[in-house]
From TrEMBL:
Its EC number is 7.6.2.1. Residues 52-101 form the P-type ATPase N-terminal domain. This is Phospholipid-transporting ATPase. Keywords: ATP-binding, Magnesium, Membrane, Metal-binding, Nucleotide-binding, Translocase, Transmembrane, Transmembrane helix. InterPro entries: ATPase_P-typ_P_site, ATPase_P-type_domA, P-type_ATPase_IV, P-type_ATPase_N, P_typ_ATPase, P_typ_ATPase_c, P_typ_ATPase_HD_dom. Mg(2+) binds at D439, T441, D833, D837. The chain crosses the membrane at residues 105-123, 320-342, 376-395, 895-911, 923-943, 964-989, 1001-1021, 1033-1054, 1074-1094. It comes from the Eukaryota. It holds the Pfam family PhoLip_ATPase_N. Its cofactor is Mg(2+).
Length: 1187
């Protein structure tokens, strides 16, 4: 709130002047801005452009026309696989080791892979470029000596005064100079934090003289400003304006330095703060126009400083994949070394038997190391495809397409809001979650508050047991039409009619509710509309209006409340805003009798400490009110206390003088202001309390139960009081009577440590093998040292549910990090909806943001954003599980198919003394990964479905039964590829090279046999997809046989129309041989059918198949698209002992989300309130991140 007084000061900035704002770009080739911490505070003059500072151009794209190629190549070759294939291509050009006649054929598929990735990067960055251009080329009105002229946003400089019309966006960060509405304007910050409620900004009182100036006069004004260096704190601005004895001291052009040094002894210095400051990206509402002084431009604006790159996240599967790639590479090196040494020593041992090679025995004996390295290089080229070149780009494209499918899934949509996938590389991680951390308010609940109960001077209203005391329909018609109110206690209105002391106290109570807030009023079609920064405040003000106390608005510093036929006016002197540390807010007003009153509301744990301890009536009233608040908490209501005190004029004047002085300080300004706020908010008189209901979201109970049944442990992290959190947990099925509960709430370190040790003992003795819930307060966590935090984790690991109450945003982040650091090989997921959840969301492996009442800040920072909590069912149990299942198969399959095509060289070497020899045509060999085997596995990874989503949602136990990727699964794929490659080579080579004779009497030579091997490998690899697919659509079948046909067509073309290749005219020779088809049949029987039998027969018994068919036939109607296993696809992932409790005759999930908690909390002694006001949360998050 803007201060109402200003003082004549000596210039506090005189020692800094003249001032240089310029900063140098850093770096050599690619210049970058210095970190904002390294910049300097600024001094500027109105209407004098500062050309030392950057213009208003922004750029969010990564590349420019000139930097795309070098920067993207640097990014592409930061991947180890690309560097590997680049080196291999270079080795192929060395004649001594080359197997491709000196041609780097591997560079073609490498070029394709890089081109695909670069093209995707280009498309994504081009969208950002178009958006940047649209932003930079917008038109703004800038005040110049020639009046208002149109300029592009990118041409605006610091020092300009701009005019913004209603509905337009602010092009830069500005200070309010003058407005069309007596120095007040309304802005919407939807682009910044997603909030649609309006916020008020004000012209500083020192600038009121500008209201009478026209554009020409305003352009001639030169006012000195000194303010903070650029920083990312959205809701913080500190600065001063320096005024002169005569505003129009010069009509001529003045230099900047002469103005800075003018009349330093007679300057008036006034404090500026965030109420005078408007951010770039805000829009002007309910105000015709505003003039603003530009103070930050371009990358220096706060919204751009907050547009930092998110911390890159990678999935567990990707980490394992990188490990497997390194492992395969080392295996490749070992095999290459073995093959090279075997070749050299075999030639030495059999020198006399191979004279046709014309080897020099002396050279072999004296240069063993050199010859070994030479052959090692050749074998390295032959075994190049041990590392799958297309794996990275294939997985990347698959995840991108999976993300599109998630976004377009109707079951992931809510109220026309679709799920947004912002980090598609975590798709499979959704199927591997072990711990879920969730906020309560706005996440589990709707964050739509309803005024429910009140306690006024020791008397409670709203908890009505007698039907005769409930307002009937006729009574409700007489009341004002309001929202967010569910109050039907007739007794309040009866008491209000009595002309006694208690009725006057009721009036005092509701005037407190009507005045102690920061709500803005606007009029739509003659009706009042409240714009609240907090749903709690809106519910309280609506409750006051429902009871007859209607807040009309703020007019020229006067707050107006309508009661009956009276219009009560209170002068607003000061607002002490809510922060998470203060957990309260206060306003200081002056009534019509000039009495100054401080009104305070906030968390009961904070207000109790501020009450007048010497007032016996206060203490007696507190005991009664605390009992009422406990009753409200038993119903799951959010509670707070109201208090006030009268101030004398002298008390207020002395305090405001210190407060204004503190606001002008440059060092420890915030700490001084907080100290003075605490000083005035003491010795308060209690007047009552409130209870507000925050309703659960739809299907929260069902969702929680299914997530728990899937094996995921749930942690609820909330700022609410312990009783409220417990009762809400009962309502959403997180807690039940059958659960054992360990409650830890301590006021000191000894008690906290004792209860942690006691809880561990109870788990090991009394609660062993029982379902257990842990409830702990934020204060208890603060008292735990590092040793006992580890014990806390040990205790929490053995609990199915953990509820942490009274935790701050920083503690939420620390708890997530604590679990990640101390419980290994787990995936954490955090769910939140507000800016105070951003740290928690970014700290977890997976961040889920809910687009809610508190804005979209959490949704923007998250990896996935959803509309409602219940969508987690579909996202985790179906999409997460299926993406994990399919993607882990994709990774293993890529290693398998490369081993199948590469290892025949190894097996064949036992026939030729390990002489380095390539069996395949080098060009077709490079097409193997790119064209012949890539599409079917992509189709599988995108479309395959083991079970329908309905079936998986009804059986959440299946979430944890899918195979997990580990060294054993990799070993299985590795052995499968090695074994099948041996089958192929040891069937084909003896059967074809010497025994296969065509009709002209010719035998097949080596190139034909090699291409036969190549053909068999392609057929086996593509049919393998058919084996492990659960559903085969027309598209998957076409992709499998289309890949085989594509190979045959390219082979036929190269064989028929080229004469320089070794495979020339081998196609007809090979495919006209009948023996080729017999061998193919035998290989398919030994590989494909054995795979099919092995993967199915060992898992399913006849009874298990009967059980699956029965449940599938009952729960799923006949579909036009069936799997090839009939009405029920088999689950190779389900252990037999899980079937007894896996299937349900009917859906046992009852929707309890609309019910009030029915389990009262006994022996409570912890009270408090989590105020949900949307305040400077992002600033706090940034500070916490820095600490």
């Amino acid at each position: 709130m803007q201060n109402s007084l200003s003082e004549l000061q000596s210039d506090p900035w005189s020692s800094y002047l003249p001032y240089d704002n310029k900063y140098e770009l850093q770096g050599c080739c690619f210049k970058t801005r210095p970190n904002w911490r390294d910049m300097k505070d600024r001094t500027i003059i109105t209407n004098i452009q500062d050309h030392d500072l950057p213009d208003n151009t922004i750029r969010t794209c990564k590349y420019t026309l000139w930097t795309f190629l070098p920067l993207n190549l640097i990014e592409q070759f930061s991947k180890m696989a690309n560097i590997y294939f680049l080196i291999v291509g270079y080795l192929e050009t060395i004649d001594l080791v080359s197997i491709t006649d000196g041609q780097p054929v591997i560079w073609f598929p490498l070029f394709v892979v890089i081109a695909i990735s670069a093209f995707k990067d280009f498309l994504e960055d081009h969208k950002r470029y178009i958006s940047d251009q649209d932003e930079n080329n917008r038109i703004a009105l800038v005040l110049t000596p020639n009046g208002l002229i149109e300029k592009k946003w990118q041409q605006i400089l610091v020092g300009d005064i701009i005019r913004v019309e209603q509905g337009e966006y602010f092009p830069a960060d500005v200070i309010v100079v003058k407005t069309s509405e007596k120095g007040i304007c309304f802005i919407e910050t939807k682009n910044l934090d997603g909030e649609t409620n309006l916020k008020i900004k004000k012209q500083h009182k020192a600038l009121q003289f500008t209201r009478n100036l026209n554009d020409y006069q305003l352009q001639k004004e030169h006012i000195l400003l000194h303010y903070d260096k650029p920083n990312p704190y959205l809701y913080k601005f500190n600065g001063t304006i320096t005024m002169y004895p005569e505003h129009n001291f010069s009509d001529g052009e003045q230099s900047r330095d002469s103005i800075i040094n003018y009349d330093a002894q007679h300057r008036k210095v006034y404090q500026l703060d965030e109420v005078n400051f408007i951010l770039r990206g805000c829009s002007l509402r309910n105000t015709h126009w505003i003039y603003g002084l530009v103070v930050y431009t371009g990358f220096d604006t706060k919204i751009m400083l907050n547009s930092t790159k998110a911390r890159p996240k990678s999935s567990t599967l990707e980490s394992l994949m990188n490990f497997f790639i390194i492992l395969v590479f080392f295996i490749q090196l070992v095999i290459c070394l073995f093959s090279a040494q075997y070749s050299v020593f075999w030639q030495l041992d059999n020198f006399m038997d191979i004279p046709y090679l014309e080897l020099d025995e002396n050279d072999l004996q004296t240069n063993i190391v050199f010859r070994t390295m030479e052959r090692w290089g050749t074998w390295l080229l032959i075994y190049t495809n041990f590392v799958p070149i297309s794996l990275l780009v294939t997985l990347e494209m698959v995840k991108y397409l999976q993300g599109i499918m998630i976004e377009n899934d109707k079951q992931c949509m809510s109220q026309n809001q679709k799920t947004e996938v912002q980090t598609s590389n975590l798709n499979e991680e959704l199927g591997n979650v072990k711990y879920m951390f969730t906020d309560k308010t706005g996440t589990i609940t709707k964050n739509l508050m309803e005024f429910k109960t009140i306690s006024i001077f020791g008397k409670s209203y709203g908890m009505v047991n007698n039907r005769s005391q409930i307002l009937n329909s006729d009574d409700l018609i007489k009341r004002p039409e309001v929202t967010n109110v569910d109050f039907k206690d007739k007794q309040l209105f009866n008491d209000l009619k009595q002309n006694d002391d208690h009725s006057r106290r009721i009036i005092e109570y509701f005037l407190h509710l009507a005045l102690c807030h920061t709500i803005l009023v606007e009029y739509e079609q003659g009706k009042i509309k409240y714009n609240a920064s907090s749903p709690d405040e809106l519910a309280l003000l609506m409750g006051a209006k429902f009871c007859g106390f209607e807040y009309i608005g703020l007019d020229d510093g006067m707050m107006m409340v309508k009661y009956k036929d009276q219009l009560l006016k209170y002068k607003l002197l000061q607002v002490l805003e809510f922060t998470s540390a203060r957990k309260r807010m206060s306003v200081i007003v002056q009534d019509q009798n000039n009495q100054i009153i401080l009104l305070c509301k906030g968390a009961d744990s904070m207000i109790i400490n501020l009450l007048d301890k010497q007032n016996a009536q206060n203490q007696e009233l507190l005991q009664i009110t605390e009992q009422h608040l406990e009753q409200y908490a038993e119903k799951g209501l959010r509670t707070l206390l109201l208090a006030q005190k009268d101030l004398s004029q002298q008390q207020y004047d002395e305090w405001i003088m210190k407060y204004l002085q503190a606001g002008l300080q440059t060092i420890n300004r915030d700490e001084l202001l907080l100290s003075l706020q605490d000083q005035i908010e003491n010795n308060l008189v209690l007047i009552g309390g409130t209870g507000i209901e925050d309703k659960l979201q739809d299907d929260v109970g069902i969702t929680m139960q299914k997530i728990l049944n899937s094996g995921i442990k749930i942690w609820v992290l909330t700022g609410d009081k312990l009783e409220t959190a417990i009762n809400i947990s009962y309502a959403c099925n997180l807690l039940s009577d059958s659960q054992q509960k360990i409650v830890i709430s301590a006021d000191d370190q000894f008690e906290a440590q004792f209860k942690i040790n006691q809880g561990l003992d109870m788990i090991k003795s009394q609660f062993q093998n029982l379902s257990t819930a842990l409830i702990i307060s934020g204060d208890s966590l603060i008292h735990l040292d590092e040793k006992h935090l580890i014990k806390f984790i040990e205790l929490a690991k053995q609990c199915h549910t953990v509820i942490a109450c009274r935790v701050s945003p920083k503690q939420k982040q620390e708890l997530v990090q604590l679990v990640k650091d101390n419980i290994h090989n787990i995936v954490t997921m955090a769910v939140g909806d507000g800016a105070n959840d951003v740290n928690m969301i970014t700290a977890a492996n997976i961040g889920i943001g809910i687009k809610g009442v508190e804005g979209n800040q959490a949704a923007r920072a998250a990896d996935y954003s959803i509309g409602e909590f219940k969508i987690l069912q579909q996202l985790l149990l179906y999409h997460g599980r299926e993406c994990y299942r399919r993607n882990q198969v994709l990774v293993g399959y890529n290693f398998y198919k490369n081993l199948l095509i590469v290892l025949p060289h190894f097996w064949f070497s036992f026939y030729n003394g390990f002489s380095p020899l390539n069996l395949y045509d080098p060009w077709l060999y490079q097409f193997y990964n790119m064209f012949y085997t890539s599409v079917p596995i992509m189709i599988y990874a995108i479309l395959d479905q083991q079970y329908s989503s309905n079936f998986l949602l009804q059986n959440p136990q299946l979430y944890q039964t899918t195979n997990k990727v580990n060294l054993m699964t990799f070993f299985f794929w590795f052995c499968s590829g090695g074994m099948q490659s041996a089958i192929v080579i040891y069937i084909v080579f003896p059967s074809m090279e010497l025994t296969s004779i065509d009709k002209e009497g010719r035998i097949l030579f080596l190139s034909s046999v090699g291409m036969a091997l190549f053909c068999y490998a392609i057929i086996i690899v593509n049919l393998k997809v058919f084996v492990f697919s659960y559903m085969n659509s027309i598209g998957s079948v076409l992709s499998i046989f289309g890949s085989i046909i594509l190979y045959l067509l390219t082979y036929m073309f190269l064989s028929s129309f080229t004469n320089k290749l070794d495979i020339s005219h081998t196609f007809i020779h090979l495919f006209s041989n009948v023996q080729f088809y017999f061998i193919l049949s035998g290989i398919i029987v030994l590989t494909i059918l054995s795979d099919l039998a092995l993967s199915r027969w060992s898992i399913f018994s006849e009874q298990q198949l009967f059980e699956i068919r029965k449940i599938r036939d009952k729960q799923e109607p006949a579909s036009s698209e069936k799997s090839r296993f009939g009405s029920s696809p088999p689950s190779s992932m389900i252990p037999p002992n899980k079937f007894d409790n896996l299937f349900y005759e009917e859906d046992e999930y009852d929707d309890t989300s609309a019910l009030l908690p029915v389990k009262p909390v006994k022996s409570r002694k912890y009270t408090g309130y989590a105020f949900a006001q949307q305040e400077k949360k992002l600033d706090e998050a940034l500070r916490n991140a820095e600490n």
